[in-house]
Amino acid sequence: MRSVRFYETAQSARNADFSDCCVIVIDVLRATSSIVTALYYGAREVLPVKSPEQAFAIADKEDSILLCGERQGKSIKGFNLGNSPLEYQSDEVREKILVMTTTNGTRALVNASKTDCVVLLAFLNMKAVSRFVQSTDKDIVLLCAGTNGEFSIDDAVCAGLFARQLSQHESIKFENPPDQLGELVERYQHNILDLLRDSHHGQYLIRLGFEHDLDFCARRDIYDIVPSFKNDRVSL
Fold first, then answer.
1. How far apart are CA 54 and CA 76, in angstroms?
2. Residues 132-169: pLDDT tens digits?
3. Considering the entire predicted model, what is its pTM?
4. Pairing state of beta strands 65-71 and 74-75?
5. How far is the CA of 27 from the CAs of 23, 105, 136, 156, 212, in angstroms?
6. Can you list the alpha helix ranges (DSSP code H) found in 112-223?
7. Cα–Cα distance, 59 to 22 (Å, whole number)
8. I need a surface site. Which of 16, 76, 124, 131 has the fewest CB within 10 A?
9. Would you list the domain boundaries of the chain?
10. Rounded Cα distance, 101 and 162, in Å
11. What is the Cα–Cα distance from 83 to 101, expressed in whole angstroms?
12. In terms of Cα–Cα distance, which of 89, 111, 90, 109 is closest to 99?
């Protein structure tokens, strides 16, 4: 029986021991959704970094770079793209290296960077990631990005649905699910768009004018890909 551990924010995992585990990083709104989409549309790889300053420094040294990301949901001055997955459905990203920094999601990735097995999960590719995880024998860590260091129901329900899907194929021990996660999964499992609209961050994005991003990020299993984070880069 495999162990499944849950971390509700990027910050909560800072000192965690992920050795011999497969870490699944989740930032539904919007980093993992955007990265999955970018790679599906032909981006060569994505380099997650913690700050815009790091992104600019990398861009000065490498060719075929696009600077991507946001701070508090808003575009960063001097960057090519923001953090809307709809921006990445374009030939503009094909064969490009994307250097990305976001408020929450890329921080979670960087915090898991010393682990051998790190993959990215969104509702967009849940079935593919589940199939991949079933092919490994490692214990599982579900690392949610959260929002500004706080619990996010969108990431948590994605993690809970993923654990439930995995449990349909094998015996797992879900060690530390948050209180009421089961209730949240039951409430939203067939209403992902309602989940995103009810979430604190989803409401914030709607106020910024990104309601269409919620519609897109709520879609299930439209991409049959599993982005993997190795050597500081996310690729297929």
1. 13
2. 999 999 999 999 999 999 999 999 999 999 999 999 99
3. 0.97
4. antiparallel
5. 13, 5, 22, 9, 17
6. 126-134, 153-167, 181-188, 192-198, 200-208, 211-217
7. 30
8. 131
9. 2-235
10. 25
11. 9
12. 109
